[in-house]
Amino acid sequence: MVKLCQVTNRLVINLQPKDGLELHLMAQGVDSEEGQVRLTPIQLDLDFDKRFGSERVGAYERLLLDVLAGRLNLFVRSDEQEMAWRWIEPVMKAWSDDSTGPLPYPAGSSGPSGATAMIAKDGYCWSGAC
Question: Does 1 score more than 50 pLDDT?
C-alpha cells in the first residue's frame, strides 16, 4: 500500500534577520478543473517588518522598557528559573553521555536526516516533497 504524502500543517517561526510567522495549512477548497471539494495547501504569512515597519521596537529596547515600566510579570522568578534548570540538566547530561548527542542540522531544514529516514520507512515525510 502506497501512502500519499500531503503538505503537513506547519508553524514556521522566523527569527532575525527576517522576523515573522508562517502558518502552512491544508484547507477546504474547490478544485477548479473538477469542481470537487478538496484539501488545498494555503499559507498565512506575517512579516513583522511589513506589518509593523518603523513602529517596531528591538528586543532589548522592549526588555528595558518593560523593566522601567515595572512589568515584572513578563520575567521569570528565581524559583521558576531553578525549576527549569532541574528539568533541563538531566536532558543535558543524557546528551553529554550519549556519543551521538543531539544531531546538528542546517538552519531552515526539516531537521537531521535521521528524522526523515525514520518516518520515510513508514511512507511519510515532513513536507509535501515525498
Answer: no
pTM score above 0.70? no
Q: 85 near 91, Cβ under 8 Å?
A: no
**What is the structure's pLDDT at 81?**
92
CA–CA gap between residue 75 and residue 72 (Å, rounded):
5
pLDDT single digits (tens) 47-82: 888 888 877 777 778 888 888 998 888 788 899 999
3-state SS, the chain, equals CCCCCCCCCEEEEECCCCCEEEEEEEEEEECCCCCCEEEEEEEEEEEHHHHHHHHCCCHHHHHHHHHHCCCHHHCCCHHHHHHHHHHHHHHHHHHHHCCCCCCCCCCCCCCCHHHHHHHHCCCCCCCCCC
